[in-house]
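cron nightly-structures :: item 1 of 1
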Amino acid sequence: MTATDRFFCAEAARVRGDALTGTAPRGTAWVLIEYRRAWPTNGFDGIDLDPETKAHVWAAAHALRARILLVRRCARPRPEAPARWAVLHHETSGAYRQRWGTWTRDADLLEIADALRTPGGLDHPPVVLVCVHGQHDICCAVRGRPVARALSEHWPNLVWECTHVGGDRFAANVVVLPDGVYYGDLDADSATHVVEEHLAGRIHARHLRGYTDLAPAQQAAVTALLARYGPAGRHDYAVTGTSREGDVWRIRVELHAPRPTAFDIEVHAHRTPPHRLTCRGPQPSTSVAYEARTIRPV
């Protein structure tokens, strides 16, 4: 295969028109570990770390279903500066909690287990992650790095490059934490606009993959409301009811501002034809797409 006919999953997904909606993986807790050496294909699992420390951190994260991501700054840090770690929580109340620490030796990372069990502070700014994990999927590096550079120029203290966040074919992917909001199909210009709007409390349907505290059909319902009625804050909409009959979901969503309003949204799920969904995966596979068919104010 030559450079001109090489397969790129993100390009193929755009040609097919793959839907972003409802593709944010579930999760409300994350562990970030700054790791300045090369990132292996399998991220945290593959780094050179004391086995007992690694097992302890993994077990603590697994108990809370927390995702572990390796991170680094786009700009090269000072050699003498210690690496950082963080535990981020998105609580059901909507509160965002963070606890940060530093590490210079493997054993310092044992603090992560304690941080996962205790609430963090509420006074931290959000974290903006850009997946650039080229060892996992080349599209993440090719499309993610220009986005990371552009965002770092605007928000150098908020933005980190990170390992695989899921959805290679939607690169460039940006995740805002602990908000738990996934964006995809971004370039440098669109990412700058999306993050600027997000930080101002305005989430748009365009480029939105979903909210990580919601199931895929629920994500599709909220995205449909944002598409019809315009951008809204992260917690302006709340899912208050969900039922399912086969491939049809009925989602009730309430709008808290500017005045209380409820909507019933019918979301249809269907399995797509098999396609190559990642650059590294040669075998075609299917995915489930979610489409909001009707929106009815209650």
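cron nightly-structures :: done
The domain at 1-214 is CATH 3.40.30.10 (Glutaredoxin).
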